[in-house]
Amino acid sequence: MLCVGRLGGFGARAAALPPRWAGQGSLQAGIRARRVSTSWSPVGAAFNVKPQGSRLDLFGERRGLFGVPELSAPEGFHIAQEKALRKTELLVDRACSTPPGPQTVLIFDELSDSLCRVADLADFVKIAHPEPAFREAAEEACRSIGTMVEKLNTNVDLYQSLQKLLADKNLVDSLDPETRRVAELFLFDFEISGIHLDQEKRKRAVDLNVKILDLSSTFLTGTNFPNKIEKHLLPEHIRHNFTSAGDHIIIDGLHAEAPDDLVREAAYKIFLYPNAGQLKCLEELLSSRDLLAKLVGYSTFSHRALQGTIAKNPETVMQFLEKLSDKLSERTLKDFEMIREMKMKLNPQNSEVMPWDPPYYSGVIRAERYNIEPSLYCPFFSLGACMEGLNILLNRLLGISLYAEQPAKGEVWSEDVRKLAVVHESEGLLGYIYCDFFQRADKPHQDCHFTIRGGRLKEDGDYQLPVVVLMLNLPRSSRSSPTLLTPGMMENLFHEMGHAMHSMLGRTRYQHVTGTRCPTDFAEVPSILMEYFANDYRVVNQFARHYQTGQPLPKNMVSRLCESKKVCAAADMQLQVFYAALDQIYHGKHPLRNSTTDILKETQEKFYGLPYVPNTAWQLRFSHLVGYGAKYYSYLMSRAVASMVWKECFLQDPFNRAAGERYRKEMLAHGGGREPMLMVEATRNGGGSVGESARSCCSPGMRIKQGWNPGK
């Protein structure tokens, strides 16, 4: 999953990053290769040993989080935030007093960078830091910076300084393509924030945006909040499957893999039981988004949110989803029938397929048909081996190596966080990845990529290196073995590393379009593409070794695993279509024709097929409504694009260096600084017109494989 910045305009976009040779001569000349550090160590070994804690440093001072001096204590967030806000005031004055030209765009980007460097970091810390004081301070910083962003997006003087540049044809013609696009993106952010409105309405837009930020934060917290039930209401023989608290049983998830049908049914009905406060929060969030969209001139929030994406508008999205649903329907029915037969075989008393059944029974079918019990595979997928596999792939494909680097005291938030230096064979250090991979109390159960600092060319000609976090929830090593991954965990690791490489492998001039700051329905392409590599025997064979014997994973086991992923794949994808359609309807025409629960019921019956369960409200657990509001379809569309890139560039040879360099130069290189379909077409190297690429991405011609966890 890509964690998208919640800020618009001067805040983070969802996007990608370009290499320095991508037709940017002046940029190339200004970047100096980074030297190799002697403190780096091989990546595989670093992940198969227990963390040793920070080295004793008798002379060095304690650094703050991510090396930011102020963040050695929670109070530092207030200092960093105030510093950013003071710098913002100076930059706003500069932007408004500077004659229009390329310098205007550089000032805007520096303004964006100064805010994002606090907001992006705080966005991660507020959910991942183990200390409540740090989380609370980060939450306050997010709110403060978010409020400033909304004020800037309705600052008329600032807007006019940019408008003067783009209104002058001679000046516009003198801009290079990336600078022009970044200027247009900033202008667009002003327009969707209501800059054209009178003063009273602009203030209303700011107030609505701040309210939406608050409601989003509240709703997100509620999506993970457990439900409880009195013990005596649950059958005694299943109580041990859940956590007890006095006279109550705590249900903190769906227990989708539990073999007992009654356990899954109880978890589903209790965890999804409607919470009145959460329901009110969702209704207010959807209503506020609709009010904001109408205030700034859009008929629906979806129309506003989809500006600048591959899909362009909600009509295209719904057409895409309906076509895909039609294509899947016959195979989905066959999948449900297969699940019904397996359920009848194991539980003859009740063979009706219910929403809590597919994850478990599809796993049973896969295991029975292909003998893919995870315990058979885990010994071959130690975390160290998987990291070494990524290192081999990236080195052969892109000339990239990953090295472990010892963090300084206070630089990381948990002693088991690893710091990786990303190094190119000729260009040197490209950036840093902090790997927060292991389970701990109060850590969100999501696999995510967070941008901490975006790359950009600084005024002194040096390059601001990108910094990201990859967050997983892997089991810790034991006395007898290193951390061992299931095949699904291994695929998730590759997926998230795809996001990280999107952030690392470019050199855009502007941080506003760096890393994963691109249209949301394009941002998942590199990560999903990495899943294809993770499921190719030629790649897996390079690293899958038994952690005790060194024996390679037999080819027939990989073949069985890949074949098993086709089992119930249509039903898995149909579920994603249902989620995406529900998201579109919620963000479509308001007032909604029914309650959010009634709409859930109707949409589930139309796009999924399994019955709605009375007195449940799955939408109240749909966390993606916050970061991916009106854009959940992006996973499906990105998969269509990734499928096309895989088939045309890497299917014949997953280690093709020429294809890898083209992929970096033409796609990863440009971030949000270029139209997505232009990047896809250039990567395909003349495999059809841009129009043909767009049409094939908006048609359901992707390879149907095992569905992905919506938490990615």
UniProtKB/TrEMBL annotation:
EC number from the UniProt entry: 3.4.24.59
Q: Which UniProt keywords apply?
A: Acetylation, Calcium, Cobalt, Hydrolase, Iron, Magnesium, Manganese, Metal-binding, Metalloprotease, Mitochondrion, Protease, Transit peptide, Zinc
Class in the EC hierarchy, top level: hydrolase
Where does the Peptidase M3A/M3B catalytic domain start and stop, copy by copy? 255-683
Q: Catalytic activity, per the record?
A: Release of an N-terminal octapeptide as second stage of processing of some proteins imported into the mitochondrion
Q: Which GO terms describe its molecular function?
A: metal ion binding; metalloendopeptidase activity
Q: Which cofactor does it need?
A: Zn(2+)
- GO CC annotations on file: mitochondrial matrix
* Pfam families xrefs: Peptidase_M3
User: What InterPro entries does UniProt report for this protein, alphabetically?
Assistant: M3A_MIP, MetalloPept_cat_dom_sf, Neurolysin/TOP_dom2, Pept_M3A_M3B, Pept_M3A_M3B_dom
- Co-factor binding details: Binds 1 zinc ion.
Please name the GO terms of the biological process aspect recorded for this protein, alphabetically. Answer: proteolysis
Question: Where located?
Answer: Mitochondrion matrix
Write out the similarity annotation.
Belongs to the peptidase M3 family.
Query: Which function does this protein serve?
Result: Cleaves proteins, imported into the mitochondrion, to their mature size.
Q: How does it assemble?
A: Monomer.
Query: Can you say what this protein is called?
Result: Mitochondrial intermediate peptidase
| Record gene name | MIPEP
